[in-house]
Specification:
By secondary structure, the chain is of the alpha+beta class. Helices cover 31% and strands 30% of the residues. The protein has helices at residues 2-6, 22-27, 37-58, 62-87; strands spanning 91-96, 99-108, 111-116, 126-127, 133-139, 142-143, 150-152, 161-166, 170-176, 182-189. The strands form two sheets. Strands 1, 2, 3, 4 and 7 form a five-stranded antiparallel beta sheet that branches.
């Protein structure tokens, strides 16, 4: 031990087997209990995404759903009115319960009748989300029954009409003027 310590340091009290330098510490792997920072971050991100999805599913505002569906329906109504003018044919719209659909007026050997539209992606039948219902309220200032098909004529001069979209608590009115502009009124409490 004297020979070992003599050339290296003045005082050497440890035997060579117990003498550990800083460079030796870098080579020794110590095992600590716990998690790495990366593992903790992954868990926090997963929890954050799950909480965000749960919040989005549980805290839906029925007014937002009503407005979104109203804008979609209004766009489809304006599209149908323009399509009727462009193709020079009478189209129609019906709304009852939780759905609405668009129609084409056809003349054949049986007379005139409404045929469901299926050749335009915007005007395909639409089922509304669960709590919503749709119903026509008025056509040309007069009340109309629920199963009525409201016509959209090729001249573009349509009678004003009102269609209501409603949930259990809120109602949104889609009002169309003679120039085929559809305005949304609401949502207002029912």
């Amino acid at each position: 031990m004297e020979n070992y310590c003599a050339g290296r340091m003045r005082r050497c009290a440890l035997p060579p087997a117990l003498l550990v330098t800083f460079s030796d510490r870098l080579l020794i792997r110590q095992r600590y209990g716990g998690f790495t920072l990366a593992e903790i971050l992954v868990v926090l991100i997963v929890i954050g995404i799950a909480a965000g999805l749960a919040y989005a599913q549980l805290d839906r505002d029925p007014r937002q759903t009503l407005e979104r569906e109203g804008r979609r329906f209004a766009g489809a109504l304006e599209h149908a009115a323009l399509l009727a003018q462009w193709k020079n044919e009478t189209l129609g719209v019906s709304a009852s319960g939780g759905a609405y659909r668009f129609w084409r007026r056809v003349s054949d050997s049986e007379g005139e009748r409404w045929l469901a539209l299926s050749d335009d992606a915007v005007l395909l039948p639409r089922t509304l989300p669960s709590p919503l219902i749709a119903a026509p309220q008025a056509y040309a200032g007069q009340p109309v029954p629920g199963e009525t098909v409201l016509p959209l004529v090729p001249s573009g001069r349509n009678e004003p009409y009102v269609i209501a979209l409603a949930s259990s608590e809120w109602q949104l009115l889609l009002t169309a003027d003679p120039l085929n502009r559809v305005a949304l009124i609401g949502p207002v409490p029912r």
